[in-house]
Amino acid sequence: MSATEEKMNMDTVDKIIRGEEIEQSSSQASFYPPADHPRLTWKETLTTKRGWYGEYDYAALCMPRLPFIGRSKSVSSPFFGPNDEIPILVALLMGIQHFLAVIGGVITPTVIISGSGAGYLNLDESTRQYLTSASLILSGIMSLIQIIRVRIPKTQYYIGSGLLQITGVAFSNIPAASAMISTMYDDGTCHKELQPDGTYIYSPCPDAYGAVLGTSIVCALLSILISFLPPKIMKRIFPKSVTGVVLTVIGASLIVSGMKNWAGGSSPCIDRPESGIFALCPTIYAPNAQQWGSPAYIGLGASVFITIIIVEIVGSIFLKNTSVVIGLLVGCAIAGGVGMMDGSGIADAPAITFLWVKTFKLSVYGPGIIPFLFVYIDYIVECIGDLTAACEVSKLPVDGDEFNSRCQGGLLADGLSGIFSGLGTSMGVVTFSQNNGIIAVTRCASRKAGVICAVLLILCGVFGKIAAAFLAIPSSVMGGMTVFLFSSVATSGIRILGLLSWSRRDRIVVAGSLALALGVALVPNFFAYLLPTVENVALQGFYDAISTVLSTGYIMAGIGSILLNLVLPEDAADPEDIQLKEKSPASSIQPGMVV
Description:
By secondary structure, this protein is mainly α. The chain contains 24 helices and 6 strands.
């Protein structure tokens, strides 16, 4: 794809987000196969060069880029639409590329929530291995549902978008689940023991995970109901000022978790006690353990972070799309070289596993309902944005009945994923946006590549040793990776906010909601003493629910931005806003200019 085409694609997505009309291109000259080439039969696909290799530009896909020496070569291959014929080798390469692009994000929420420390489940190693496997399996299964698209009999509704959309465990699960688990440890549902040195030892709390799953299942009904509403109504309910603020705060709050892991972990070792098993991170029994924040851990996490940046600078298209995995491999190699890798868990892990090998007692935890309702609102907003971008890069309509039908099917699949993933012992899965970027630069939107990616996710979950290998990665290595991933979430929110007109009303909505949201994130105990402790169980449960809402930054961001957006009137044009717009560099950009 040329630089001009990439610019046109980004301009189109921006117009979609702004709600502007766009023109649909009728050019089909770059599609594969050309119109005068008949489709191959299965036999011809397996026995001909065209069936195996096609006319794809493999050199551009794999050629590294030398910095400061001109532009890298763009992919000149034909475009492969969702249902187009695609050579076998291209399908395999694209499937592997999508798999490597999402694998780090798929496992991260489960690895973090099941780990040790305040706000986490503190589960044993075998249970964590199972949960990681379950998240991979369910992500693959739900991806197949999104990709294949099934019509509900005797209706006009669908399940799935029919696009190359890969799903994975959503990052927005982390702050909601963490706030809920923290409340359960504080109210005695989960056990923690105060030590003489002032630190707490948190006992494993699988019942808290069952409560997370059960609460998520109930809240998933919201996504299912909303999936039958037109996308235009969704955009009116959740405008850019709401979605941008919520995503920015979610990313910012997640970075805190990533930085803790980068420095050694989030277990009680973060308090650097002088004695006890947590005197070193993660414990004194870990190989070559260090104190929290030691230069060894900081440098190990930095090796991952810097590697990702270097790959983005000099890597080929293929390498850039797998930069997170490459960073993990470099970090693991260094950790293994200095004796920080513990392979005992891999040896003890089962060779084969599947769903329901371990089960959890499902329950609905009242104080967690509001946080998870906001999680599913975030799912809805992200899904609409992902599907809009996916249609655009797949050269499909981004308005009209076909587009609305794909959005309905995609949202319904996301809602059902919330139920099925909970029943399958995984936190909610949602469409990932990374795949849209890969489609744009590789010119391959084939659903066959998505199916290959989904099958690889399922296979990695079935083979239990693979999940154990991920859990053997030191916390500092995971921290270097997750800080980059979580920063990308915040960046997405900032980009959406950048599309605002920034009128006085916009500034008040954003500033008012960010003030409380970031304030709560930076000072977590700000509202800790606001509500009393009472003996009435029902009333105390109500107070706990309010406390959970007030202590969760992205919920405060969502409530604040939605209320301000509804309350503040649409004023006439402010003279100050007009003056700022005239002075803005963007106002001097003419149509067709490449910036």
